[in-house]
Structures are given as C-alpha cells and as structure tokens.
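Sample entry (891 residues):
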Amino acid sequence: MRRASLALVAWLLAGVAGAATPAEKDLSAGWRFRLASGGAADSFRGASGGLTKPVACDARCKPFTDWQPAHVPGAVQTDLLELGRIADPFWRDNEAGLQWIGLSDWDYQLDFDVDADTLRRGHVDLVFDGLDTYAEVSLNGKKLLSADNMFRQWRLPVKNTLRAGRNTLTVHLQSPIARLQPWLMKQPYSLPGEFDSAFGDEPKGKQTSNYVRKANYQYGWDWGPRYVTLGIWRPVRLESWDNLRLADLHIAQRHVDADTATLAAQFDVRADKAGTVTLDVAWTAPDGKTGSEKRDVALKAGENHVEVPIAIDHPQRWWPVGYGKPDLYRFHGSVSAGGTSLAEADRETGLRSVELRREKDQWGRGFAFVVNGVPIFAKGANLIPYDAFPSRVSTERLEAILRSAKDANMNMLRMWGGGTYQDDAFYAAADRMGMMIWQDFMFGGAITPYDDAFRETTRIEATEQVTRLRDHPSIVIWAGNNEVQTGWESWPDREDFRKFVNADEVRRIEDGMRALFGDTLRKVVTSLSPEVPYWASSPGTDFEREANVLDDGDYHYWKVWSGSEPISHYLDVTPRFQSEYGLQSFPVMATIKAFAKPEDMEPESKVMRAHQKFANGDGNQRLLLYIRQEYGEPKDFASFVYLSQVMQAEGIELAAEHLRSARPRNMGSLYWQLNDVWPGASWASVDYFNRWKALQFHAKRFYAPVDVVPMRRDGRTEVFAVSDRTTDFDATLRTRVYDMGGKLLRETSQPVRAAALASTKAVTVDDATLLKGADPRRTVVSFDLLEAGKPAAHHLLYFGAARTLALPRPELSTKLRSEGGRTLLTVTAKRLARAVWIDTGDLDVRLDENAFDLLPGESVDIVVKGDVDIDTLRRTLSVRSLVDALKEATP
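Predicted structure, serialized as tokens:
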C-alpha cells in the first residue's frame, strides 16, 4: 500500500506543478442566436394539423434569421425583448401574438478560445447546468449531445474535440411542441394533462407537456401566461482537471440532538488510477469555534464514495424561524496527496433533525413536522416560479420574496411541482432566514408516461437535484409530485380517460405512476438524503390509501373558489395538514397600470380577461360572485380591485385561523399562493413586483406567534388562545363590545393559561350573551389577549357578512411626520372603519401595517419604509375603507 501511495503521488503531481486543482472557464459571454433555418412556426402548422388560430411566423420572423447577440443564461423570448424585436410579453394582450417563438426552432452559437495549457490537462469537460429543453450540442462541427431534460446538468468530455485557439460551440434548440405534436397525433390516446392552450397551437386534449421534462407552468396555468421558452437557461462552463476530480462534498447528518451531532463528510471522487489520498475536513461553528478531522483513504480507479466521520459536542442547531436561531456551520473539505491539494470544496449547512410524525390518534393519523424534537405548526404558502422567464430572476429578487414571507411570520413555503428547482441562492437564503422548504419534484399534476426512458431521465434528474440541494437545512421534505395521484383518482377528465382506455393499459399507467413516485424517487431521497422525509404525492397518504382525505396525510381544499362554495365552508373541513387552499384577487392599481391602459380598466375588458387565467378569463365573474356574497356591489373598477383583495384576505384569514385553532388535529396551513409569475389576477398575496396585497398584511397577523381567534358558528363563538411559544404563559382575555358609532357597551376580562405549542380554548359564548339586546348589524366585539397588561393579540368579531352590517362612515384622518429618523403615518377613525387600505400609488415604499380595521376613536401609527420625502408621500397617499367602495353603503 505504501508503494502504491507513493506511486500515485508521483503520478498525480508529475507535470502539473501549479495546476493540480481543477480550473474553470466561464462560457456565458459572447453568445449569439438566430431563428433556425426551416424552424419557423409555419412549418409546424403543417406538421401538427391541429392549429385553429394563426400562429405562423410569416413576415415577423424574417428579421430573426441573422445572428444577434444573446444572453446566457437566458431564453429566446428575453433575448428578443432585450433587442427590441418584440413588445413586452406582459403588456396588455401581447401574449397571443408571441406564441410563434415557442413554436419555432432556434440556434445559439459561441466562439471561444482555448489555450495550450488547458489542452494539456488530463480532462476537459464542457458543462451545461441547464438546457431548455430539446437541444443538440455540437463543438467544432462534431455532435456531442441530444439533450431532452430541462432539469438536468450535462457534462461532456471535450478534450479531444477542442483545438488550440478558436473553437465554435453550437446549440440547436427544437420547439418541444413542434417536436412532440406530430408523434402525439399518431398515438392511440393522449395522457390527461393540465391546461389546454388558449391559442390553438395544440388541439384540445392533446397536450405535449406530459411527455417532456420541462417546467409545466410555461405551457400556461390558471395564474400565468403561456410562454414555452427555449434557451441556455443556466450557466455553461469549461472545466479542466488532472487525474482526480471532487464531484461532490456532502455533510451527512447521521444523528443530531442537543448533546451531539454525529456527521460524516462524504467525498465523491472521480480518480483515473488507484492509490491513497488524504481527506481533510475543517469546520467552523456559528460562534467561531473550530475543529478538524483528517483521514487517509484508498481510492480505486473510477468513482469513489469515501467519508470522514465528524463528531461535534453540543451543536448549535438550526431552527425554523420563530423557534431559535437558524445557525449555520461552515465546512471546508480537501483532497491532497504528498502535501499538495488536488481538489477542494466548501459547504455551509445547519445541523438539525427532521421528522414527519404520523401518529394515530382520535382523528385518524397525524401529519406534523418535528424539528429538533419540537412539533412545528407549519405557517406559510405555496411558492410558484418567480417569473414566466426564470433566467431573469436575480438573487436580490428571490431573497426579497423570501423576506416578505418571513416578515409575514411564515415559517414554511411549499416549492410547488409545476415549476423549476430554484437556484442555490434561493435555498441559501432560506437557510439563513430559518424558512422551511417543502420541496416538490417537478411534476405539476399531469399524468406521466410509464416507459423506462422517461423514468430513467427523471431518476437522473432527481439524483442530480437531491445531490445539489441536500446540504440545505431548510429543505424538510421531498414530495414526489403535485396532485398526480388525486387527479388520477377523482378529476372528471381522468375518469373519462379510464373509461376510454382498456383496463390493461390503465393498469400499466397506474403501475408506472406508482413505480416513479412510490419507488424511484423515494429510493433517490432515502439513499442520498435519508435524514429528510419523502412523500409520494401532494395531497396524499404516501400511497397507503386514496389521496386527499381529511383524516390522513395532507389535503388540498378547493370547493371554496373552484367549486363556488361560500367562504364560510372553510370551517367545514379540518384536515391533518392543509397544503393548498385559496381565493383570488387583483393586484394593486399601480401594478395593473404596468400592463393595462386606462381604457382597459373594466373586469370584462379584453386585457383584464387576458390577465385572468382562471376559466379562460371567466375568473373575474367568480371574483364578483364572492365580492357580492360578502360585501355588495363595487361602485367602480378601482373598488372592484380593492374589494377583491379584502375578500381574499378576510376569507383566507378565516380558513387559516380555523386551522390554527384546531391544533393538534391540524398541523399546517399553506395557502395558495405567495407570489406571481407576471402581473395579473391570481391567488397570490405578494404580486409580481413584490407589492403586498391585503392578504399578506393579514397573514402577518394571523400567522403571528401568538393569536387570539374567535370562531363563530351557528350563533356561538369559541375563542382560542393560539401559541407557537415553547413555554406556557399567563394572559388575560379582554372582551369589549362596541356600538359601531363609538359607544363602549360592555367590557369583561378573564384569565387564560395559554399552553405551549397549542391552541387553548379560552371561552365559549353565544350571540345573545355578547349582544344583550344590541343590534347585531351595528355591533362589533373586540377580543384582546393581554400579557402583563399589554396586547399580545387582537381580533374583531362581526355578526354576519359585511353586506348585512350597517357600517358607518368612519371619517378617517391621516397625519404624516418624521420621528427618530423614521417616517410615521397616523391613521385615525372617528367611527368603526372596516378594511382600511392605505394606497401609496407607484411610490417604492412599504408600510409595516395595512389592510386593518379600526375601532371607533382608535388610531394606529404606521412606519413607512422607503426613500421618499414626506411632501411627495402626502401628495400621493390616499386612504379608504369598505363603505367607500360599495354602490349602496349604509349611512
């Protein structure tokens, strides 16, 4: 062994002095692109036979056949926009006229130089971190690759294809629709998908997106546009190395508790020859304490998985936001021989334990996340892609959305399966913030093919993604898909499909889904990241029984909104974990003005319907249905927009607080959805420009660590003290009954012992006791949870839907001032003010409070954050309440 080790050292070091470690050459700059010869959309028209509207390239394409500068990472659509060759894809109804881009083939090309020193290295690899999606790669005229998966990395050995001096790299991108549609039209059936195209480029029920590993949402969703992108959407580089490459460094967490962290630094090493090397691991704790471990290991020629054990006493553990500090450790690993470093890598991770606890109880079987032994009630939302064009999302933008979630007291976001796996920067930011991430694999609901090739490319994709992301402590679960199982079991189009296809084929499709989500992806997670739980399908029961049941697993509830049931029906369901539910709204007027002209400002205008994707534009009527049920008739378009946000915020608040009050029967509330991919109507609480809607401000309150929750049903109100604190505390429940005009009718108080990590029922009271003869239409009850005499939580209770109440005109007044280097806004109500909204136009400011109710005579001080002078803010600012938005407000 000693002789072999010395021989390896000599061999490793010979001729590579000063160049022992791998080197990288960034290939992101200097690209050009053009419409591929014969690749225009008009050729696809004849191939598919399924088009019903003109999408042909015609004269529009002719200027695009010459080479033009391109951005990498990027997409054809964003390159054309940068060049001014197309109009803003988000403006008005431009979407329809830009579909030809995704139906055409495109070429990208790069000339780059390689020096002789690079070619003398033992290995030179061309690495694409992401190709979108069907891509043929050629180097100096030699074809190297036919890529077919947007989510995979492609590593190509090119040492023998490169030449000293100038080299030419070409990527030919094929439209996934044009490629697959002719094949699909010949098949005996089409697998059920998600949303049919609104533009006639695919026949109804003939969706190609099921059959390709590409982001589903780009084919159009009920909250976003149809932009089927093509491009080199993630970085590309040249990597050169000699004899040995460190493919991955992973800090496996075998066991973590308050006393000890038992870890293993796992090195994946690719070696050309057998021999012995030294592995070094140095770590730095959050408090600056350091440690290191070293180990000699024997490598074989080929792939090696070797490790160094690490033990850390009394680790500073990573905690979700609200439960402790999200502490992170830094690890540096190196591979050396003869005292010379051959490869190095750094990792930052948090030490924590994660459990998905599914204990049987009186309600069925639980579904609770337990971090470091503490059961966590998951408070958050679903996260969709940040943009229709993912390559233009900056690190600053993704971090800003995460901060919005944290600022609203969220502790979990579900990375929904119809989009993309996020960049490393997203998960690193979530790590630092203590934000738990529910990570779906990228399957958005469409039924999957069962062939071996599709399953194998998905296995490789999953292996690469889990390997890339497994050191992020924020990821607390991997889920196989979104709504594939429940869709197959219960959606009408799937039921019709099963009747159409013979029984043997149905069985093969079912077996294929179970094999992919129940076996293949599970094995990837359990082998590469065994400390993180795997969940086969959301909603689901991990294939142990049917999906989307109330007494087991996670649950998606859409009878409210999609089923048009009243908002009050949120109180009728109490699942073990509610991972989807939602109500729509429009964004603020400043955002609407970013995509529409003044003449478009009507709910049923062509442009507003184009930016309302639910039910092909009919979603605006659904919004009006709920607005009218709860509030009445909007008096104009701006009032419609405002009322849509009030309805969404108050409806989701009712649902979320019901779920929190039901702890531990329910252990999670993730509403649909946090963010937007473009400006338009959607379920988001934060719009495309990260402007907070009313729902986000409400979430900040209903997701607060301590909440007081009055739940009124059938004339009786139960009041709960909800606490995420890890220790009990004593409080006082104060109940005050007001006439809406300003008179305090009655006040009572009683002690409450708020239990840790629990919902404590404080009181049950009927309407008659609360009202004592007062008019319910003109009465409001204020519940305050006081701790040491100071409010810890506050909530108002009304006796009926807002449209049934005799709401007064509140006579709101505002005052702006500078104080202590801050800009403060004071809002005062003479009488009860329902749903106060402060609008700051298109000023780049953020209010720390908005979308609230004020009791008669009450004032609130609001911090205005942003670089704006008071005079400008005073001219722009406006304030309104519910009565200002209705055609027939009761005086």
